[in-house]
Amino acid sequence: MRSYMARSLMTKLIGLLLLTSAVPTIVVGTFAFVSGRSALEKTILGKLSFAIETRKAEISRYLERTIEEVAFLAHTSSARMAVEKLRVPPDQSSGSEKKPDRDSQDYGKTYAEITLSFKEFLDHFGGDTQAHVDILVINASSGDIVYTLKKRKDLGSNLIRGPYKDTALGRLFSRVSQTGKPVMVDFSIYPPSETPLAFFGAPIMDGGGVVKGVLALAIDARRINLIMRPTQEMGRETTVYLVGPDFRMRSQAQFDNTSAILKKKMEFKAVTAALKGESGTAIMPDEKGEISLVSFADMGLNRNRMLGADFDWAIIADADVGEVFAPITELGIRITWIGVLLALVTVLVGSFSARAIAGPISKLSSQVSRVSEGDLTVDVMTSQRRDEVGELVNSFKAMLNNLREQTGQIVNGVNVLASASAEISATVSQLAASSSETSSAVSETTATLEQLRQTGRLSSDKAKSVAEDSRKSFQIAQAGKKATEDTIEGMNLIRGQMESVGETVIRLSEQSRSIEEIITAVKDLAEQSNLLAVNAAIEAARAGEQGKGFAVVAEEIKSLSDQSKRATDQVRTILEDIRNSISGVVMATERGSKAVEAGATQSTQAGKSIEEVTKSVHEASQALNVIVASSEQQSIGVDQVALAMDNIDRAMQQNVEGNRQLQASARDLEDLGKRLKDLVERYKA
Amino acid sequence: MNDKNKILKQRAKALARASETKVSALAGVEFLEFGLAHEKYAIEACHVREVYPLKRITPVPCTPPFVLGIINLRGQICSVIDIKKLIGLPHTATSESSKVIVVFNDKMEVGILADDVVGVRKFLLSEIKDDLSSHKAKEEYLSGVTVERVGILDIGKLLGDDSVVVYEEVD
Predict the structure, then answer these.
(1) A2 exposure class (CB count in 10 Å sphere: 0-12, 13-18, 19+)
(2) Min Cα separation B12/chain A (Å)
(3) Which of A158, A256, A390, A482 is 20 to 30 A from A275, comparing alpha carbons?
(4) Where does A426-583 show beta strands of DSSP type E?
(5) What number of H helices and E strands is found in chain A?
(6) H or E stretch covering A547
(7) What residues make up the domain containing A531?
(8) A537 min Cα distance to partner chain B (Å)
(9) Which residues make Cβ contacts (< 8 Å) with residue A677, sequence separation at least 6?
(10) CATH code, residues B27-163
(11) In whole angstroms, what separates CA A23 from the centre of its chain?
(12) Tens digits of per-residue pLDDT, B124-135?
């Protein structure tokens, strides 16, 4: 239930409204109620205390006045007269009702006098006489009740020995006699009247201060009741009463039909406390057990010297809580009803407004949750309301549109990203490859540069040495020129020799030719002999047996011819060799002479060339200087190039590094693209 | 002088040995060995009149191509033919060593051009095999081949061939 309440906005709103309306109501109501109650309490208690105080004062005054009256009355001549003149026969002892000497005329006359006097006195000086029940005079020495106003049974009885000696009157008499001071005695049932009466007594003294008699006044509670009567404003349930030490009432509560004095027992805490001498206010259960507002105090009668009382009363003001708090209770009930009504109204109003607020919000919330799950196809209706809820709905609609657009764009962008990053990756790898190629090319170039430098240095050195050499060669050229001239001379000599050699050779070849001819002749001869031999052999063969000797001869001839052929062959071969040699020699000679000529020409040429060489050497040496200079420049240039190459190389390294990072970034980008794609695929737009 | 004699004796021995071989081998036949188109051939010596050096051939018109011409053989006119064409050998040019072998049988006498003449040799009959394929010559003209790869030409076939007979008229 709680979770349900917490989930629904509507119930929250209603609950909130309820709370906001209920809580103040409750708080204020309770506060009002409580404070009103306590104020009322205080007021009531104050009132009660006031009531008590006033009544206490009044009662005290009343009692004091009464005792004063009695004391004063006791000082009147009538009192004395009563004591002196009125007598009851002494031998009429206790037990039976004693008839005073009433019938005597004396008694009657005196009695009438006294009574008149008393009445006059009381009329003039007395206060409230309505409560006076009886006035009695008692002879102190005898103890007889010599006079009573009411002439009841007690008239004439003896208080020392008589039947009423133990009554309150008796006690009064004894005390007054003993103390010689006015005394008050508490209410008690006075047998003669059988009603609760209280007695006031004063000593009737003679001139010498001797107590001759006691004047007693019996009162009932009428006056007290009157005093104690609660005022109208105190309500029906408020009672003020007196309680005696026996915990019985001494005043009549107005709600009691019958006399409660000395009958009704009021024993509860307040009474007990008051009788102890405490005073105060309290809320406590009364004698019925009902919670009441109680104000209590002790009358202080026994402290009042005037009264001469040996007892005290408690004065209690008792207001029933229920009745006292009735208006408050009513207020409370009214407040509660109002609160309930308010709550209902609130609930109603709240439910309507909550529905108005929460309805669209909950609808929106469901749509939003759909969107959060990835469904961007949700259709949000434009709200007509102009308040925040309407704004929210419209804003959400706009946001959703934007989101859809954005998602679409993101999808496009992601696709582009994916393809681009793939391209980038590819390009980067290409780049890596090409940069590694470049790097290797660079290193090759660097190596080449190094070589270049080396060779440049070499060439420079060489140029220097060549310059040196050229100088030397110039000198050599000079020498050469001279040598050339010598050579030419020698050449000429050789030519002459060659010519002579040639002649000899010609003669030789001629002779060899003749040898050749001889050879040929011999060969021919051999050939013919061979042929002859063959023919002879043939003939021999044909001749058969006879031709055997002939065959041998033919054989011999053949062999001979063979020999000579061989010899001729040999000779020819030798001749051939000779001829070859001769021709070789001839050729050599010719070549020699040609060579000599050529040599001579060449020497001349050489001479010229040497001159030219000298010239060009000169030029060359100059050129070499230029070369040296330019080679130095070249070397500087190469150094610069090498430096540049280094830079390039370093840049390449950085490039490679950067490229690697780029690759990583490209990969990251690709991953990102993929992740974005996955992310975006959650949303169907 | 002793050396000389020694040498002569040695020679004589060598020669004697050669002739001994010739005399002992009664089973062999005398052949004239000659060269033809870089191959060795031989003809029975009994069919050979003589070997004549080739000086000058006088070509005769209106003769088949294998008839090279005529020569003056000590006053006698002998026709020379080139049997290479006949027996299917490739043509070779005449050289210094070329000789004319005058062969004859009972019908005719003709001179055969040979590239060179080795000499008269005796071949044992046992040496002659029938492996005629070793020579380029047509097999019908070969009667055998010796172990030394000398083709024995059959003169009869050669001279009896119709193609040898020249019979041409000129209009």
Answers:
(1) exposed
(2) 9
(3) A256
(4) none
(5) 11, 9
(6) none
(7) 391-681
(8) 7
(9) A411, A414, A415, A418
(10) 2.40.50.180
(11) 31
(12) 877 777 766 777
Do the Cβ atoms of A551 and B22 come within 8 Å? yes
Task: Specify if A310 maps to a domain.
Answer: no
Question: Is the residue at A592 inside a domain?
Answer: yes
Q: How far apart are CA A241 and CA A380, in angstroms?
A: 82
**What are the extents of the domains in chain B?**
27-163
Structural contact between residues A553 and A539, judged by C-beta atoms closer than 8 angstroms: no
Integer Cα distance of B8 and A544 in angstroms: 28
Nearest CA in chain A to B119: A534
Which residue, B93, B138, B140, is CA-closest to B113? B93
List of chain B residues whose C-beta atoms are within 8 Å of the C-beta of residue A559: 15
Helix, strand, coil percentages for chain B (3-state, nearest 5): 30, 40, 35
Instruction: Round to whole Å and give the CA distance between A308 and A657.
Output: 125
A79/A43 Cα distance (integer angstroms) = 49
Detail the DSSP E strand segments found in A206-279. 211-219, 238-243
- Report CB contact under 8 Å: B51, A531: yes
CA distance from start to end of chain B: 73
Residue B102: strand, helix, or coil? strand
User: A194-208, pLDDT tens digit by residue?
Assistant: 788 888 888 888 777
Consecutive H or E run containing B68: strand B67-73
Q: Quick one: pLDDT at residue A675? A: 83
pLDDT at A43: 80
Mutate to test the interface with B, among A534, A558, A559 (most CBs of B within 10 A): A534
* DSSP state letters, B8-36: HHHHHHHHHHHHHHHHH-TTSEEEEEEEE
Q: Say which of B19, B48, B53 has its CB closest to residue A555.
A: B19
The tally of domains found in chain A comes to 1
Q: Tokens for A568?
A: 């001729």
pTM score above 0.80: no
What residues form DSSP beta bridges with B101?
Answer: B51, B112
Domain membership flag for residue A482 = yes
Chain A residue nearest residue B33, CA to CA: A534
Rounded percentage of chain A residues whose pLDDT exceeds 70: 93
Chain A CB contacts of B50 below 8 Å: 534-535, 538-539
CA distance A586 to chain B (A): 30
Which residue in the set B15, B45, B53 is minimally distant from A527, CB to CB?
A: B53
Write out the residues of chain B at the interface with chain A, using a CB-CB cutoff of 8 A: 15, 18-19, 22-23, 30, 32, 45-46, 48-53, 99, 117, 119-120
> How many residue contacts between A and B have a Cβ separation below 8 Å?
46
- Render the burial of A322-336: b for 16+ CB within 10 Å, e for the rest: ebbbeebeebbeebe
Q: Which amino acid is at A170?
A: G
Q: Which residues pair with B58 in a beta bridge?
A: B70
Q: Is the ipTM of this complex over 0.90?
A: no
DSSP 3-state assignment of A436?
A: helix
Coil/strand/helix, residue A360: helix
Average pLDDT for residues A297-317, to the nearest whole number? 83
Q: How many residues does chain B have?
A: 171
CATH number at residue A501: 1.10.287
Residue pair A197/A261 in contact (Cβ under 8 Å)? The answer is no
Q: How far is CA A373 from CA A367, A394, A410, A414, A674, in A?
A: 10, 21, 18, 20, 20
Residues of A with CB under 8 A from a CB of B: 527-528, 531, 533-535, 537-539, 541-542, 548, 551-552, 555-556, 558-559
